[in-house]
Each structure stands twice: as C-alpha cells, then as structure tokens.
Design brief:
- The chain is of the alpha/beta class and 808 residues long.
- The chain has three domains: 92 residues, no CATH class; 378 residues, Glycogen Phosphorylase B (Rossmann fold), CATH 3.40.50.2000; 261 residues, Rossmann fold (3-Layer(aba) Sandwich).
- The protein contains 34 helices and 23 strands.
- The strands form five sheets. Strands 1, 2, 5, 6, 9, 10, 11, 12, 16 and 17 form a ten-stranded mixed beta sheet that branches. A six-stranded parallel beta sheet has the order 20-19-18-21-22-23, with helices on both faces.
- It is globular and about 90 Å long.
- The structure holds N-(phenylcarbonyl)-beta-D-glucopyranosylamine (OAK).
- The site of N-(phenylcarbonyl)-beta-D-glucopyranosylamine has 18 residues, from α6.
- Belongs to the glycogen phosphorylase family.
- This is Alpha-1,4 glucan phosphorylase.
- Keywords: Carbohydrate metabolism, Glycosyltransferase, Pyridoxal phosphate, Transferase.
- InterPro entries: Glycg_phsphrylas, Glyco_trans_35.
C-alpha cells in the first residue's frame, strides 16, 4: 500500500495505465484526475471490504439515515486528508510534473441538496464513519441527474442555470446493479384469502428499478472508519409490455414510459422548506423509501437468514418527513411479503424508526391530498388508513371524550394525510435540532402528542463536521491549533478548549491574527477574480451566507447597510467593513429574489460612492455552495445569524463560523442561544425579540409595523428609500416595502431593526480594539467543540439508535 511518495507514484502510474487510454504525457487534467480518484477509490474499497467483515463479526447495528438531500461537497482533497496522504500525493504528482491543485479543480461538487437539511446529512455521514464503534451508519438518498441549480447574477438578479454535474460521470460513485430494488407505483389492490388469512395483491402497477450508486466516506486517519452513501437512480424495467410496444412499433409509448420513470431521479426540487405538493415529489419520496427499506430487508436476510431480531439490529432515521412513507412501506413488506400479523409488524416498525423535525414553518409541513396519494400508492394508503384507525381507537379509549386530542393528532383529516403525524405515531423517537426548537415542538406543533407520549421527545442540537469546516477548510488556523495543543482535537473537538491557555500568549495571538488575515486575503482574491470587486482584507468582514428566506432576514441586514450609508454620508465614521452576502433563492420565491436584487442595488450605490468607500463595501457572492463556504467561513470576522426568533430550527452555518473564530451577531433563535450560552455575553452580540415575544406579537392585533415605521425616523428613511429613486434602478421594490408595512412585517424586521443596529455598532467598535477582538475570536474557537457533528452523532447513538443495549 501507499506509505511514501515512491509507493504512491508507482501505484498512481499503475492505475493510470489500467484506467486511462492515453499515455500520461498525452493526457489532459481530467484523465489525470480520473486516475487519481480511481486509485483512492480502490484503496477505500479495500478498506470497506475489511470493515464490512468486522461489522458482521461484531454484529454491529446498522443505521439507515434516509434523506432526500445530501450536500456532500468535494471529495478528493477531503478523502486524502482523512487518509493522511495529501502531502505525499501532492509531492508525488509534482515529481510526475502534475499539479495537484489543478487536478482538484476538475472535481464537480455534487449539488444534491438545498441547504441546512442536506448539509447536515452530509456532516452526519462523516461523523457516522468516525463514530462507527457505536454502530454503522449509512446514508440513503437519490442520485438526481440535475441537483440544485447554479446561480448566476445577471444585472443584480438571480438567474437559475441547470448544473449538469454528471456530465463527465461522477467518479466517486460506484453503480451496484446487483443490489437494485423494484418499486411499484399506481395499479390496484385486490384482496384474496390464503387459508384463513386475508392477503393483499397489488396488480397492474408500474414498476420502476431503483439502481444504487455507492459513495464511500471515511473517518479520520483510521481505515476502519468507513461507511457509504447509497444514491438511487430510477430506471425503466425492460419488461413484456415495453418490449411488446417496441415490437408493435409503438416506440412513442415505450419512450413515454422510459421518460416517466427517469423523471423520478431527474431533478432535485429547489424549494427549501416549501412543500411542492406535486405527484412527482411524492414519487421521489416513495422511490427512496421503498428502495432503502427493501434493501435493508434483502441485506438482513442475506446475512442472518431470517428477520429474527431485525428491530435490534436495524434502525431507520428519517431526515424530516420526506421519507416518512418508509414507515408504511416497512409494514407492507412485513405483512404482505413476510406474512407477519399487523401486531408483529407494528411492534418492529415502531421500534426501528426515529424522526427528526427540521422546521416549524407551516408551509414546509407535508400534507398530501388523499386522492393523489391513493392513486399513486394504493397499498401504502390502505396501510396508513389502518395505522390511523388503530391509533384513533387506542387514543379514543385512553382519553375518552377528548375529541380535541383526536382532531389534533389524526393522520388523515380534511382529505389530507399529515406526514408529521404519521412520523410521530410511527416512530419511537422524535427530536428537534436545538434546545429551543425541541421545546417549541413539545409546546406547540406536537403539543398534543407530547401529552400522550412524552418519553418519545428528545433534543439533539445539530453539529457540523469540524474536520471539513475547520481542519480541511482552514489550514492556517488548523496548523496553528495543532502546534499549540497537538492534533487530538481533530478526533475530539472538545480538546479545542485547551486553546484558552494561550489567550495571554502574545506570539500565539499574533499567529491567530495572521491566520485570519490569510483567509481574508484568500476570499478577497476569489471575489476580485470572479466578480471584479476589490475589497480590503484589513476591513471587518461581516458575512451573511445562507439560503434566502423571509425569516432569515437578509432584508434586515440590507436595511441596516442603507442606514449606515446614510449616516456615513452625514459624517459618521466607523471601522471599515465589508459586507458579504451569499445564498440562493428558490426559483419560485419572488420576494427572496427581490431581496437579492436589493442587496446588489445597495452594493452598486455603496461601492461606487467614493465618499463612503473608505468605510463600507458590499458584495453578493454568486452561487454559494459547500465549496465556496469552505473559503467563506474561515474569512469571517462577524457571523450574521439574524433569523426571527422561533423560526430557525437550529442553524448550522453559525457553528461553521464559530469554529473559524467569527463572532456571532445573533438573534435569540435556534442554536444561537446555545452558542451564546457557551461563550457568554462578552464574546457574542445577542439582540432582539425572544421566541415567546414573537409568538405573542404574532397574535392578530398585537403588532403594528406602521408604529415602528413612524416612530423611528432612521427606519422610515430607509424604507422610503426602497421606492423613492435612491436605489437608482428601474426595478420595483414596492413589494418589499408592502411586505414590511401593508402585510404587517410578519418577520418583525422593523421591530428588531434598532436593537440589531445597536448590536452591530457595538461589534464594530469592538473591532477597533484588535486585542479584545482576538480574545473573543479565540474564545469562540475554544468553545466550539460541542458543536461538532461527532457529538451530535454520539447523542443519536446513545439516546435514540442504541436503544436496547448490545444486539445479542
Ligand atoms: C428543508 C426542507 C424541509 C424541512 C426543513 C428543511 C431545512 O433545511 N431545515 C433546516 O434544517 C437545518 C438542519 O437541521 C437547520 O439547521 C435549519 O435551522 C433548518 O431551517
């Protein structure tokens, strides 16, 4: 195997001659990249084969993490880092006259997610590999041919362009056709008797093949820490009717069937936290669910011969409700295919499933119209009806006369199927993703369920991969940390706490400042090269990157910048600041797109006004994604986390910034509160309404945004500037202004404006005292350890997946 540069070179050249058709001297960078990935993949494959043996010998539990999204980021450099081979490879390639950095540019990032939920799933894959001794965790998802769109900014507006990430083939994934599953849609269900047992026969269905493509994931510097992400693509079954139609010359019919099937894995829905409500989306959800559950059963029977102890050895975790149909799907397999009774099947099902809720936004809570659902999944619908019937019967007898309770928790009501209710009823555990969010679940949206089954409810605060977002993304800081406290923090993030001992070490603190400066230079260079805007790395980098959404309040930030601009024009002086934004808006979310245009319009005004240029500049980064995040998070001084309290379930960007030493300017929401608790008032700028106040003010008649507007002249001025020609564009921002005034500002932008502005000014003044600033920065890094996804995954194992002690 590869221990040094020479053995690497030999292995690389061997692989190259096996997998490429050109001689090395005539090959292009893609071929060189392809050969390198093939080599790394072969190595990982051999590690996997060993790990799987151990896994079976040790009889380890298997956790299926089902998610419609996995935003995994680029793999090559990250895998090499985890293998400890990056330097060897860089130097070995250089000997062969190959530039490693150029090969890295060949890799396409797999765009298989929208935002927080998808990136969280990827961080959890990383940590499930790392924490494998507690049980093996695997990701199951969909291999969308087109993932999330590429964002272009044209004339200040977002334009969506398809991202054909698979066009050159995606080398990291290996197709596993031998493990494919047939998924059945539509048709009808006939009942028949088998002895004295009723059986259900699904007929005239449309079959679809779910073909897996596996991507291996590594933990850190230990080749037994390895797992995979299995992504399914939908393919047609070349069966009789298809062939027949070909034979009869009905090519159009055959082609239509093929197109309909392939549509299932063709495109990721770009809506973030907004239920699509379309048949295709439900098809995708069932496709993933049926493939994953089908695969788990087939694998289990292959290894153990029967389904004995299935509930002890297997756990399914559903990442929000999107894969919730896997609950009735498991029931279907156990009853219809394995011949179990309802009771036996239910006992297993409710023991293997657990569910994480990631939002309380009403528009994101999935409810399917019964008619659409029943036509697409007739047998699954019957099972859901029966789950609901038995549930209501049980609750009805335990809480006689409590109609309200039944109404609040039923799965099927008003012609719709409530997927969150199905998920709670069909799971043994329900968790929120930050302390405050879990509390809101118990008190509000799942309050009635909490009354019935309080023991089901848990909190597991999110975490992020500190190996990707600090060790890998921020080499200057990672090196400095390792020099100071050793390398153990890479495996055990809470070791970062030891950095506090260096707060009075001048040399260390100077190096800390230098590392930040280097990262800011890197981002400045990126921005200049891509977008032609020159920014000053010694200015305060104030960064707001995340999906565009009303509740995330990029608008509040934009209004603050306009206010600051007005003040600077009137003579105010501040610490020079660069405001950096980034993020995508759902293609159909016009208000969010208006905010992108607004930010770019403000940027135009600010960046072209010499009178303010020494103080502020504004940049909107095009196409924010995981790879760009890896450049952005390390460069931040200020982390903008300003959602309306109660609306951001957790947030994870806040943690990525924290690991990189940014100071949070945060509302009283989601994980902000836990970061604030970890670092204290001195090292965090907290502002604004509490969740309770937001809920209180949301009651009709208790808040009037006009009052804020008319009583705060600074605020009135910027709101009027939206439409009075100040922005020097023909674009119409009336809709934004109307949202704030005529639609009563449902995200409390005006209410939080002054507290936010004051908190920002405090931070900006603090920046003037670099010693004090660096102390806070160090404090944030040192206290970030608990926000590692390793900690979160350990908690999932302890609290949820590892529920019955050892398997045997
Ligand atoms: C997306 C679609 C449907 C439901 C939720 C989401 C989602 O991305 N939610 C986000 O999940 C993150 C991971 O838990 C949280 O950090 C974000 O606060 C939450 O908005």
């Amino acid at each position: 195997m590869i221990q040094d540069k020479e053995s690497f070179k030999k292995a690389y050249l061997d692989t190259f001659s096996r997998v490429e058709s050109n001689p090395l001297e005539l090959s292009n960078n893609w071929e060189k990249y392809h050969a390198l990935v093939s080599l790394v993949k072969e190595m990982m494959n051999s590690y996997w084969v060993n790990a799987v043996k151990t896994n079976i010998e040790k009889d380890q539990r298997r956790i299926y993490y089902l998610s419609m999204e996995f935003l995994i980021g680029k793999m090559l450099a990250y895998n090499l880092m985890n293998l400890g081979l990056e330097n060897i490879v860089r130097e070995g390639l250089a000997d062969l006259n190959i530039n490693y950095d150029e090969l890295l540019l060949q890799e396409e990032e797999a765009p298989l997610g929208n935002g927080g939920l998808g990136r969280l799933a990827a961080c959890y894959l990383d940590s499930m590999a790392q924490e494998k001794d507690a049980g093996y965790g695997f990701g199951f998802g969909i291999r969308y041919k087109y993932g999330l769109f590429t964002q272009k900014i044209v004339d200040g507006c977002q334009v969506e362009v398809p991202d054909p990430w698979l066009k050159d083939g995606y080398v990291w994934a290996t197709p596993k056709p031998d493990r494919m599953i047939t998924v059945k849609f539509k048709g009808n269900v006939r009942t028949a008797m088998d002895g004295n047992r009723i059986i259900f026969i699904h007929e005239n269905y449309e079959p679809v093949l779910a073909v897996p493509h596996d991507i291996l994931f590594l933990g850190y510097m230990d080749t037994s820490k390895i797992n995979y992400l299995r992504l399914y693509s939908a393919e047609p079954v070349m069966q009789d009717f298809d062939l027949l139609s070909f034979n009869q010359g009905e090519f159009a019919k055959a082609a239509a069937y093929r197109a309909e099937v392939e549509a299932i894995s063709n495109i990721l829905y770009p809506e973030d936290q907004n239920q699509a409500g379309r048949e295709l989306r439900l098809k995708q959800e069932y496709f993933l669910s049926a493939a994953s559950v089908g695969d788990s059963i087939a694998y289990y029977k292959m290894i153990y011969g029967s389904l004995d102890k299935f509930a002890k050895r297997v756990a399914f975790h559903i990442n929000d409700t999107h894969p919730a149909v896997s609950i009735p799907e498991l029931m279907r397999i156990l009853i219809d295919e394995e011949g179990m009774s309802w009771e036996e099947a239910w006992e297993i099902t409710v023991n293997v499933f657990s569910y994480t809720n990631h939002t309380i936004l009403p528009e994101a809570l999935e409810c399917w119209p019964v008619d659409l659902f029943r036509a697409l999944l007739p047998r699954i619908y019957m099972i859901i009806e029966e789950i609901d019937r038995r549930y209501l019967q049980d609750i009805g007898s335990r809480y006689p006369g409590d109609e309200e309770l039944l109404r609040k928790t039923a799965i099927i009501a008003d012609g719709r199927i409530n997927m969150a209710h199905l998920s709670v009823i069909g799971s043994r555990s329900v968790n929120g993703v930050s302390r405050i969010h879990s509390q809101i679940l118990k008190e509000n949206i799942f309050g009635a369920f909490y009354k019935i089954t309080p023991e089901k409810f848990h909190n597991i605060t999110n975490g992020v991969s500190h190996r990707r977002f600090l060790h890998y993304a921020n080499q200057p800081l990672s090196d400095l940390i390792s020099q100071a406290i050793g390398v153990e923090w890479i495996n055990q993030a809470t070791e970062l706490d030891k950095l506090l001992a260096f707060s009075n070490d001048r040399g260390f603190m100077e190096q800390l400042a230098k590392a930040k400066y280097k990262n800011k230079e890197r981002l400045a260079k990126y921005i200049f090269e891509r977008q032609g805007v020159a920014i000053d790395p010694s200015s305060m980098f104030d960064i707001h990157v995340k999906r565009l959404h009303g509740y995330k309040r990029q608008l509040l930030n934009a209004l603050k910048i306009m206010d600051l601009y007005n003040a600077i024009k009137e003579g105010k002086t501040i610490q020079p600041t660069t405001f950096i934004f980034g993020g995508k808006a759902a293609s159909s979310y016009q208000r969010a797109k208006d905010v992108i245009k607004l930010i770019n319009s403000v940027a135009q005004i600010v960046n072209n006004d010499k009178q303010v240029n020494d103080y502020i500049r504004v940049v909107f980064l095009e196409n924010f994604n995981v790879s760009l995040g890896e450049i952005v998070y390390p460069a931040a001084d200020v982390s903008e986390q300003i959602s309306t309290a109660s609306k951001e379930a957790s947030g994870t960007g806040c943690m990525k910034f924290m690991f990189n030493g940014a100071i949070t300017l945060g509302s009283r929401d989601g994980a902000n509160l836990e970061i604030h608790e970890a670092v204290g008032d001195e090292h965090f700028a907290l502002f604004g309404l509490t969740a309770a106040q937001v809920m209180e003010l949301s009651v009709a008649g208790r808040y009037n945004s006009w009052d804020e507007y008319s009583s705060t002249p600074r605020l009135k001025r910027v709101i009027d500037q939206l439409v009075d020609g100040f922005l020097q564009t023909t674009y119409d921002f009336h809709s934004i202004r109307n949202g704030l005034l005529w639609e009563n500002d449902c995200f409390f932008v005006l209410k939080d404006f002054m507290p936010y502005t004051v908190a920002w000014e405090g931070l900006n003044q603090k920046y003037a005292d670099q010693d004090q600033w660096l102390q806070s920065s160090l404090y944030n890094i040192a206290k970030a350890g608990i926000f590692s996804s390793d900690r979160a995954i350990k908690e999932y194992h302890q609290l949820i997946w590892n529920r019955k002690g050892p398997v045997v």
